[in-house]
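Sorry, can you check?
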Amino acid sequence: LDLRGKAAVAQAALAYKLYQQKFSGPRWEALVKKGAKKQRLLWASTSVKNPAYSDTLYVAPLIGPDTVSTMPDQALEAFADHGIVKRTIDANVSEAEGIYSALEKLGIDWNKVGEQLEDEGVDSFKKSFESLLGTLQDKANTLKLA
């Protein structure tokens, strides 16, 4: 139970560590000289579903350079009310590594988890995009009639 509610933040911290490794060093600097730009990390679905967790659980520990967080109103209002703006994403990487390892020892297959989350995330964004296109098409059709 000590690990409950910690996997997502740990995974994000480790993703950020990997991001920093990929976007630094001689190889990256050579790419920058040719015009390469970093793509920022996107933290999505930052609302808390479990009422036993802090309402800023998926916002406060994910603050850092080159990141974007898509917060629903509830998470934004909670953070504006009692959150603290400070760099946190890479403050406890060793703790994140420990959580990751502990969950692996419990039989969690991170590759499977990642694939499932990626599939669900892409599906969610696809539905939103299709909805947006439908709304735009409806508006275009309305304007044609006017």
Notes: The chain has a mean pLDDT of 93. The helical segments are 7-22, 25-33, 73-82, 93-105, 110-145.
